[in-house]
């Protein structure tokens, strides 16, 4: 399966701290095999939370990384919202879910406009945005 991985600025900021390129490719590969693996977060419009092991810090899924993402099946896209360590954030607060849900709703509400267009606009406004070093399009080998 081919899919496009779109990193939002918040995800990109934290990805370099927690995942090197090889670990990120492994995460992408797992998500390609099971796009709906994460638990749907209530009240967000379809965002999912995925538990992922953190081998660099010797943490399993329970105390490892959390990935907040949206799988857009029609466009074959993963929209990566947040990445954090379980011990750093107790649980998603209602406020952070609401913000992510609103961001997703804005992207989905405009016909012909994907979240990728939304993130491009954010990138232009943000002077500290850096493009990812890895290829974002992946497919099965």
Structural description of this entry:
- By secondary structure, this protein is α+β, with helices and mostly antiparallel strands.
- The chain has a single domain (3-138), classed as YaeB-like fold (2-Layer Sandwich).
- Helix content is 35%, strand content 22%.
- The protein contains four helices and six strands; from the N terminus they run βααββββααβ.
- It has a six-stranded mixed beta sheet.
Provide a concise account of the structure shown.
The protein has 141 residues and is an alpha+beta fold.
CATH class: Alpha Beta
Helix content, binned percent: 25-40%
Task: Please identify the structural class as seen in this structure.
Answer: alpha+beta
The CATH topology name reads YaeB-like fold
Number of strands: 6
CATH architecture: 2-Layer Sandwich
SSE run: EHHEEEEHHE
Distance between the termini: 9 Å
Rg computed from alpha carbons, rounded to a whole number of angstroms: 14 Å
Please report the number of helical segments: 4
Tell me what portion of residues adopts beta-strand conformation: 15-25%
Going by CATH, the homologous superfamily would be RelE-like
């Amino acid at each position: 399966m081919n899919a496009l991985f779109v990193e939002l600025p918040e995800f990109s900021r934290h990805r370099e701290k927690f995942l090197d390129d090889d670990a990120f490719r492994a995460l992408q590969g797992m998500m390609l095999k099971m796009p709906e693996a994460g638990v749907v977060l209530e009240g967000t419009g379809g965002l999912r939370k995925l538990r992922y092991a953190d081998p660099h810090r010797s943490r399993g899924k329970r105390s490892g990384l959390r990935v907040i993402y949206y799988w857009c099946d029609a466009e074959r896209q993963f929209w990566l919202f947040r990445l954090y360590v379980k011990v750093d954030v107790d649980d998603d607060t209602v406020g952070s879910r609401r913000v992510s849900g609103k961001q997703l709703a804005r992207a989905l509400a405009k016909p012909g406009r994907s979240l990728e267009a939304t993130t491009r606009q954010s990138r232009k406004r943000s002077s500290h945005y850096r493009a990812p070093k890895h290829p974002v399009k992946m497919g099965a080998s």
